[in-house]
């Protein structure tokens, strides 16, 4: 049974603590605004849609203590500063602001919880629709190659762990499985935080064959013809289709182009930032160098960490990169698939 990534329990939020995975499956209770902000910063919750929903819940937690205008503005300020790249964070906070600010303080707490629940419900429905719209991409490969499974490559984790359900990049994979299409997934490790381990874990739980690869193995596999299509998620899609996603995505798109393999982004409308003209305007998060220097794992069954670089080694740790629209075959959304420069056709309400 699939665990839940985030839910309300009385006056608290409960999250599946992703820092323990894949070795330890445990939940974590968030009682305060600061708990929610720290869960996002520390990546107990991660993945653009889940970050947004957690932030919405964080606003509800804050309003339980202070539902004044200042309390609302303060909560949105704290949560909005947690992670810069995933625009779903700002989408969710903007939605909370628009819903709550006009209300009298006494009505805000209940309305905040109701809006949080709506965001969670909608995320599941949205991702289900992404799966349905992405399914034909795999069906086409399957129809052409009945002798073997469809071979998908993905990067980072854009599965159900990164959302309220179904995932984004993995939603078409789950839809294919439900449709009886044999599918295998190449899962890149995704250094430095190794979110690929989360992807391998959730695919294995779902019974979908998958193989972990070192990030640098993606090119040889594509060149050898062992990949039919690449699908990744996104943290922010600019209006021109340039897409920020976990660092390493760009290199996969380059290799896919050279090998003639289609490269898809799967993302909900809440990840498209129509106010951001191009990828050069997307803020890229730089994270702590210890994410690179220190590797976490198990030693004799106990959680352990190993320093693979000296504590004072100089490192750079950009957490995301931008794949230019010209390398993206199509973007799969809850409203259908579009070429990256035709997103406004699917979301005309955002056309200036
Ligand atoms: O730093 P993370 O783990 O939050 O980054 C996650 C990703 O880059 C995902 O691919 C993206 O958010 C899409 S999640 C459906």
Word description of this protein:
The protein is of the alpha/beta class and 352 residues long. The protein has two domains: 6-122, Up-down Bundle (Four Helix Bundle (Hemerythrin (Met), subunit A)), CATH 1.20.120; 131-350, 3-Layer(aba) Sandwich (Rossmann fold), CATH 3.40.50.10470. It has eleven helices and 16 strands. Strand 15 and strand 16 (336-338) form a beta hairpin. It is globular and about 60 Å long. Bound molecules: 5-S-methyl-1-O-phosphono-5-thio-D-ribulose (MRU). The site of 5-S-methyl-1-O-phosphono-5-thio-D-ribulose (MRU) has 19 residues, from helix 2 and strand 9. 5-S-methyl-1-O-phosphono-5-thio-D-ribulose binds next to helix 2 and strand 9.
Topology:
Blueprint: E1 6-9, E2 12-16, E3 27-30, H1 33-41, H2 48-65, H3 69-80, H4 88-100, H5 105-144, E4 150-154, H6 171-178, E5 183-188, H7 195-205, E6 210-213, H8 218-223, E7 229-232, E8 236-238, E9 243-246, H9 249-259, E10 263-266, E11 272-273, H10 290-293, E12 294-299, E13 302-307, E14 320-323, E15 330-333, E16 336-338, H11 343-346
Bound molecules: 5-S-methyl-1-O-phosphono-5-thio-D-ribulose.
5-S-methyl-1-O-phosphono-5-thio-D-ribulose (MRU) binds next to α2 and β9.
């Amino acid at each position: 049974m699939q665990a839940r990534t985030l839910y309300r329990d009385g006056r608290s939020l409960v999250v599946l603590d992703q820092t323990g995975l894949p070795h330890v499956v445990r939940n974590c209770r968030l009682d305060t605004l600061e708990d929610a902000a720290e869960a996002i910063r520390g990546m107990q919750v991660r993945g653009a849609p889940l970050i947004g929903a957690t932030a919405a819940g964080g606003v509800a937690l804050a309003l339980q203590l202070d539902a004044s205008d200042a309390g609302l503005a303060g909560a949105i300020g704290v949560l909005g500063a947690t992670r810069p790249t995933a625009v779903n964070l700002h989408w969710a906070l903007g939605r909370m602001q628009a819903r709550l600010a006009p209300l009298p303080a006494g009505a805000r707490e209940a309305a905040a919880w109701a809006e949080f629940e709506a965001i969670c419900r909608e995320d599941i429905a949205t991702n289900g629709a992404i799966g349905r719209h992405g399914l034909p991409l795999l069906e086409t490969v399957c129809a052409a190659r009945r002798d073997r499974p469809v071979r998908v490559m993905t990067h980072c984790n854009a599965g159900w762990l990164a959302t309220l359900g179904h995932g984004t990049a993995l939603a078409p994979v789950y839809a294919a499985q439900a449709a009886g299409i044999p599918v295998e997934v190449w899962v890149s490790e995704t250094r430095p935080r190794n979110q690929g381990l989360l992807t391998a874990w959730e695919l294995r739980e779902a019974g979908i064959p998958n193989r972990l690869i070192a990030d640098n193995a993606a090119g040889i596999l594509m060149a050898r013809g062992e990949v039919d299509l690449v699908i990744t998620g996104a943290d922010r899609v600019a209006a021109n289709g340039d897409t920020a996603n976990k660092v390493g995505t760009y290199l996969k798109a380059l290799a896919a182009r050279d090998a003639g393999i289609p490269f898809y982004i799967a993302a909900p409308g809440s990840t498209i930032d129509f106010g951001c003209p191009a990828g050069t305007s997307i803020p890229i998060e730089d994270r702590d160098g210890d994410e690179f220097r220190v590797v976490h794992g198990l030693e004799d069954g106990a959680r352990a960490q190993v320093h693979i670089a000296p504590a004072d080694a100089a490192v750079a740790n950009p957490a995301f990169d931008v794949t230019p629209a010209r390398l993206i075959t199509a973007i799969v959304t809850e409203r259908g698939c579009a070429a990256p420069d035709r997103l406004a056709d699917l979301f005309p309400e955002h056309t200036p």
